Amino acid sequence: MIVAMAVIAGLIVAAVLSFGKFARSTDWRATVTPLASIIGSGFLICGPLLAREFGSGAVVAMAALLAIAYAVGAVIRFNIVHIENLAPALSLNDPIAWAMRVAQVMLAIAYAVSVAYYLKLLAEFTMKPLAVPVGWHDLLANAFVTLIIVAFTALTFSGDIRKIEHAAHASVSVKLGIIAGLLAGLGTWWIMRSGLPLDLPPAQLSYSGIPLLLGLLITVQGFETSRYLGGSYDQLTRVRTMRYAQWLSSAIYLAFIALLTPFLREAQHAEGVAGILDIMELVAPILGIFVLIGAVSSQLSAAIADSIGSGGLMIEVSRRKLGVRSAFIAASALSIAVVWLTNPFSVIALSSRAFALFYAMQAVLALWVSFRTGAGSWAARVGFAVVGLICVVAAVAGAPAES
User: Fold this and answer.
1) Interatomic CA distance for residues 233 and 78, integer angstroms
2) pLDDT value at position 200?
């Protein structure tokens, strides 16, 4: 029954999103880009990590993390309208124009770091089923990731990044189908076991878990991509569809953590960032396969998307003095350095810090523009300041998951 429901749900969702009329709508196309970036394998690694730190309070902790992300999204949505309207009137040396360029540099670096994060996870999930000796694990994983990054860069040598743009979104329908299958399988297990007692770990809600929670900001990041889709969609469409992406991804994250509740004790002892594979196989072996396929496809597509984002931003920041090839080489070099200098857990916190700095800068810009143009209420300005402060704390105090 579990296998049947997982397969049926996965096929239906993938088919509807691939061939349905809705899938061809403007709103869905504009939603897919931020949604694809938000839903990498973050929801897979969050379960074990939050269970270990917060016990049966994992759902509450996940809700808090999503609330922070939504507040940051509100800042980005304000900037989509007000900064974009102000930007054409700014001189090259205007302080806000300089601040915007600094924010772009931060995002380009954050994207390059996140490529290392995505591909580190891809390597962990890919190597999980293989009998790789412990002494060789890190070396082989890093070499594997380096080869993928080099391949990304090689695809741009024609001077045109469009050859890999489509690959960034090709797996979105399949990925969401896989997620639907996982949720349906877990839900079916829950229904079949209804009425039986659950052996849950105690809730562990304390201030000591805040650094880990902030270190997981990268797992719900990606909504900011709507900010840079102005060439394809108008402001109102981007604002609206960013909300859709955050609503849908939040529902998926919370549903997954909630349905994982019966396995939280096992999740506390899951080893490595790919430990969710072991947990899903307790429900049904096929769900382990779902996790593996979903993780690999989502990490690869997200890494490609962020490679494009990093290279594109470097071109823009350099005022087109860097060509496509040079920009991607620079971004790839940074990603490779992060790969070899970090482990899979610490790169999560490093990526979160990089994006937290970018988000803090966006909050500063929102506050600055609000005062300069009179846009936004005093309540909004206080909100911008609070979000900026939270992001600064996340950048400074976000803890590696291994701690």
Assistant:
1) 16
2) 67
Q: Do residues 140 and 132 make contact, with C-beta atoms less than 8 angstroms apart?
A: yes
Question: In this predicted model, which residue has the larger pLDDT, 372 or 161?
Answer: 372
**Res. 20: pLDDT tops 60:** yes
Residue with tokens 């290392």: 116
Residue 74 confidence (pLDDT): 95
Asked if 15 contacts 211 with a C-beta cutoff of 8 angstroms, the reply is: no
**Burial class of residue 266, CB neighbours in 10 A (0-12, 13-18, 19+):** middle
C-beta of residue 335 within 8 angstroms of C-beta of residue 111: no
- 96-122, pLDDT tens digit by residue? 888 888 888 888 777 777 788 778 877
CB 254, CB 70: distance < 8 Å? no
Nearest to 124 by CA among 285, 273, 267: 273
In this prediction the pTM is 0.82
Residue 302 domain-assigned?
Answer: yes
Structure letter (DSSP) for residue 321: -
Does any domain span residue 402?
A: no
Number of domains in the chain: 1
Q: Can you give the residue range of the structural domain that contains 170?
A: 2-192+199-397
Burial (CB count within 10 angstroms: exposed 0-12, middle 13-18, buried 19+), residue 270: buried
Q: Per residue in 258-294, pLDDT tens?
A: 888 777 776 666 655 556 777 777 777 777 777 777 7
299 with 41: CB under 8 angstroms? yes
Task: Please state the separation of Cα 195 from the chain's center in Å.
Answer: 36
Q: How far apart are CA 245 and CA 255, in angstroms?
A: 15
In the chain the first and final C-alpha atoms are separated, in Å, by: 39
Distance CA 265, CA 130 (A): 25
Q: What is the CATH number of the domain that holds 321?
A: 1.20.1740.10
CB 79 within 8 A of CB 367: no
> What is the DSSP code (8-state) at residue 217?
G
d(CA 18, CA 13): 8
Residue 403 lies in a domain: no
Cα gap 235→229, rounded to integer Å: 9
Gap between the Cα atoms of 10 and 220, Å rounded: 22
**Rounded Cα–Cα distance for residues 20 and 339 (Å):** 39
22 occurs within a structural domain: yes
